[in-house]
Amino acid sequence: MPEATVHPSGPRFASVDALRGLAVAAMLLVNDPGDWGHVYWPLEHASWHGCTPTDLIFPFFLFTVGVSIALAFGPKLERGDARAPVLRGAWLRALRILALGLAINLLAAWLMPGAHLRLPGVLQRIALCFALAAPLALVTRAWTQGALIVVILAGYAWLLHLGGTLAPWDNLVSRSDSALFGRFVYQIDPASGRGHDPEGLLGTLPSLATTLLGLIAGRWLCAGRARRLWPVGVALLVGGWAWSLVLPFNKNLWTPSFVLWTGGWAMLALGLAHDAVDRRDFPPIGRRFGVNAIAAYAGSELMQILLPATGAQQLLYTGGLARWITPLAGPYGASLAWAIAFVALWWVIVWAMDRRGIHLKL
């Protein structure tokens, strides 16, 4: 069984598409419960310090962004393609992803009752990490990228220390986002008026380190050195756990220990997916989501806005699914059933797109 399918843009590993797709499906699952007041704890983010299974999802996706950059850019560098057009294309794509994220936030602020405009967001962070990792993929080698990860994490840890506290609202990340974006962030503290955004600007710096871990992993895949994923993944887990004793896991702040911990799990997940899918021919579960990742995420976000805004969610969930399932499985079961149905609907959509060869790329 060949390890990769060769495309004009470079090798395509079904394992990478599958891992990316599973991350997207998990995003939809945790972002779309029927009732936010009844969500099982593994499907919730840690309230502040800590790391739940849900906290792994976004780092996994950023990790696969880095892997995908390596798979796309590696063959171009080997062929000696001019770097300027490649970089220009990457930055234009990043700009389109950024614009899409802002457009979704604008629509939410316009249609959702009680909503306010938020400038940062998931797509915006993906765009920034993609834009920053692309030139590094073109002009640096793996050891330089590894050294840069160390510098980023050490420098960011120093900045957090200078901030004096990791407490909500008072930490340096929240203060910087509040100063930069004002009230256009995810949360506002009613008492102090200070804001916080889990996808704010300063926190994008360690998120870049997550993306660079994926970039290094992708280069190993291209070079046939996938076995390195296992020991490095374990080393990252051990390093992240040890660092968490001093600087705890925190997705909101994307702490260095969180980068190593989630990066270690992502390395091991990629190693497992590569061995199962690319080498042993297991079915690439999640691939259909993976080849239309941005389309599925953005489309689901639009649906998540339109359903409540039009009253359709109240009709379909409260007046329909919840009334039927709550007596059988309780309010938590009903809320989870809605989320599963939401993911299933989008699986049908991406399945139909894939069957017709429709793979939307921004």
Give your account of this protein's structure.
It is a single chain. With 362 residues, this protein is mainly α. It has one domain (5-355). It contains 12 helices and 4 strands. The chain has helices spanning 14-31, 57-79, 83-111, 122-139, 142-162, 172-181, 204-222, 229-244, 256-279, 287-290, 293-309, 312-355; strands spanning 5-7, 10-12, 187-188, 195-196. Strands 1-2 form a two-stranded antiparallel sheet. It has a two-stranded antiparallel sheet with strand order 3-4. Strand 1 and strand 2 form a beta hairpin. Helix 2 (57-79) packs parallel to helix 4 (122-139), helix 4 packs across helix 7 (204-222) and helix 7 (204-222) runs parallel beside helix 9 (256-279). Residues 1-10 have low confidence and may be disordered.
Draw up the topology in text.
Elements: E1 5-7, E2 10-12, H1 14-31, H2 57-79, H3 83-111, H4 122-139, H5 142-162, H6 172-181, E3 187-188, E4 195-196, H7 204-222, H8 229-244, H9 256-279, H10 287-290, H11 293-309, H12 312-355
Antiparallel strand pairs: 1-2, 3-4
